Amino acid sequence: MPPAPGPDLIAIPGPSPVPARVLAAAHRASPDIYADELAQLNLQVMDQLKRLAGTRAHLAPYIGNGHAGWEAASANMFAPGDLALVLTHGHFGRSWAEMTEGLGVTVERLDFGAAAPDPARLAERLSPTHLEVIDESAAHAGHAGANGTGFGTHFRVRISSPLFTGRSRVAQHRLVYDALQVFIDQGAHAIAIEVL
Question: CATH number of 128-195: 3.40.50.150, 3.30.300.90, 3.40.50.620, 1.10.1040.10?
Answer without folding.
Answer: 3.30.300.90
